[in-house]
Every structure is written in C-alpha cells, then in structure tokens.
Model the fold of this input.
Amino acid sequence: MSATRIRELIVTPIAFRDPPLLNSNGVHEPLALRIILQLVLEDGTIGLGESPGGTARLERLQAAAEVVVGMHVFDSTAVAAAIDAALLPTVPSSHERGWTSSAVEVACLDAQGKLLGRPVSDLLGGRVRDSVPFAAYLFYKWAEHPALDGRPAVGDDWGEALDPAGIVEQARLMRERYGFESFKLKGGVFPPDEEIAAIKALAEAYPGQPLRLDPNVAWTVERSKYVARVLDGVLEYLEDPTKGIPGMAEVAKDSPMPLATNMCVIAWEHLRPAVEQDAIQVLLTDHHYWGGLRRTRELAAVCEAFGIALSMHSNSHLGISLAAMTHVAAAIPDLDHSCDTHYPWNSADDVIVPGVLELRDGAVEVPTGPGLGVELDHDKLEELHRRYVDSGMRGRDDTGYMRRFRPGYELKLPRW
Ligand code: GKR
Ligand code: MG
Done:
C-alpha cells in the first residue's frame, strides 16, 4: 500500500461559543457548529479540514469518508469526483455537494503540503503577499445571551451595540485588539436610516477607512437604491442589499457604488447571468462552497476576465478555515478588498494550537510551515466535540432563537 494513500477520514462535529450577534434572520445562538476533518494517510500524515456544521453536512462528510479510503491524496480532483458521485443520488444540487468536496480538498492540500514540506500557498501557485488584510466584522449585538431554560445569562467582553454609538465603540475595540483598517457592518437589523446613521458615525470616527454595509437581502430594490444614493462616497461597496441576480441588477443600474455578493452568486452557473445582467461588481469568494482552494483560485481568474473585483466571505469559523482562507487569499494576485472574518468573535474557542494565526495590524501573516501550517489541539477538539454532543444542537436557527425572546418575531425578507 502506497504511503500517500488515504487510510481514513475522521469527521468530528464540534460546538463552540458564539456571542448574540444580530442579523436579518434573527440572532446567533450561544453555540455555533463546525466539523473538523482529519485525513489520515497510510504513512501517518494527517491533513486538516474545517466545514460548516449541521446534520446534513455531517452526514455528507461521513458518506465522503467511506469513498475516499484507498485513494491517492495527490489525486484531489478524483477525490472530489468520487465524493460528488457518492452524493449524487441523495443530494441533487451540485452546489450542495460542493460543500463536502471543498472541505476534503483542503484536508488533501494540507496533507500534500506536509508530505512535500511546502505551505499550501505554494501548492496554489505561490504567495504574492506575505500577509492577508481582513476587515473588522461589526455586528449589532446584545450585551449577553439572556437567561433561558434554567441556563444563566452568558455575557462577553464586547458589550452591547444597538445604535451608532455602540457600533463605533465596537469598531474601536476591534481596532484596539486587532488593528483593523477597514470595517464591515452587518445590517438588516434596524430600519435602514438607523443603519445609515451608524455607517456615517463610523465614517466620522475613521475618516478615509473603507466601510461596507451588508443587510443580507433585507431591503426592496427601491430601498436599496435609496441607501446607495444616501451613502454615495461613504461606502466602498454595498453588499447584498436585495435578493437575487435580477434584483441586484436593478439596483446596480443606479448605484453610485459597486455591489457585492455572497448570496446571489454562489455557484458556477450563477456567473453567466450575473455577468450578462451586470448585477455585481464584487464577488465575495468562499472556498467552503466554491469547490475548495484550487477552484477559488480559478474563480479569481474568471472574475479577472469579467472585471469583477474580489473579496472574501466568512461565517462563524475557527482557525483551520482561517488558515485555508489566508493561504488562498495570499495566492490570488488581484485581491481587491480586505477579506471578511468572524474570527475575533470565536477565536477564544479555537481547535488549533495558538501562536501561528494572529490577527495583527488588521492582517494575518501567511503561515510558512508545511501544509496549512497549523496544528490540531486534540484536547480542545475533544472538549468541543463533547460540547456538541451535550448541547443537542444539530443546526443553526437564528430565527427560532430570536423567537425564544420575542415570540412575535417574524422572518421577513425584504423587511424594508
Ligand atoms: O454571521 O450572521 C452572520 C452572517 O450574516 C453570516 O451568516 C453571513 O453568511 O457573513 C455572512 C455574510 O456576509 O452574508
Ligand atoms: Mg454578506
């Protein structure tokens, strides 16, 4: 048996602490879910991967674990094809199947890098920057998760942010702790004029620093045009103001600033209509659903061909994902904007050994060790897996959680 064949794929669901961050769907629960992958080769080399959590994703990764055994770790295209074929009968959407192969591809690349003694960025063509800039991801938030079902309230060291002053204070803390030089506000929580006021307050507090607003399709086309008009000259881009490619195209016609998305262009088949309708000017890539790191690199080339600028999307995540995001961002020549990351909200519960990934001066240095350059903390993995088991939580439900405190809360998109 060749030393570089896959012996086993260990799939471990975990739960980690998350603050009460507000969005257009409701509010983040006290725990967020991810899945950690360990791809074990015959020679004992282990490649790491991290995937968004939830039962469906877990079951698909478990199915993938059965088909990859015996395959060659350098055959990552064949590995992706085998996973795709295994999932096809039960998962009709190629985009959904892609989530699974993306996570496994990262683990393959980590193992390949370890075998070769080279960082993953080298396997993607080499890094064109030594550090990758990230934006402070600002959220409206409650001071604490309120007490619930006998569980006491859970606070954090960020405090409440429910108005412009609270958002400016959160930006100050983000900057003080991590040195961020650009800011993204998660909107879609309050009436648009209140969020406009928060953006204007940020612009006043941090003149000249790039700002973005992302209401996650909470607005109609007309409302989106209004916000774009009012924030002309203030935002570097407006993210997913309204739903769908035709809606975004309608807004883009009159928008003085670029429109960005991580919602209406999320699969290869969306690119053609988006380009034909000139619906977006910035694409927020995400290797977790674009097919992995190599496909993200290819996506960057497609965007370059069509004059679409690039930035990067994030969801609640830990360090294996951050390392993967950093390697691929380092290998993309035209990375036009700082990337998103939720890491400051979740890093206290990371599963990797601290020290390699530091957010400093608003950037993460590209790890130079073999593979992703990060090491799994097995005790922490066990602790977070236990928390997953004990919590009984099996999926994300921002709306349901919000209703525990505001029973009349309705999910309404667009809301304004
Ligand atoms: O964490 O609440 C959140 C975000 O709204 C996340 O779910 C989005 O996927 O960050 C994301 C975005 O940019 O839309
Ligand atoms: Mg977004």
Q: What stands out?
A: The chain has two domains: 6-117+378-390, 123-365.
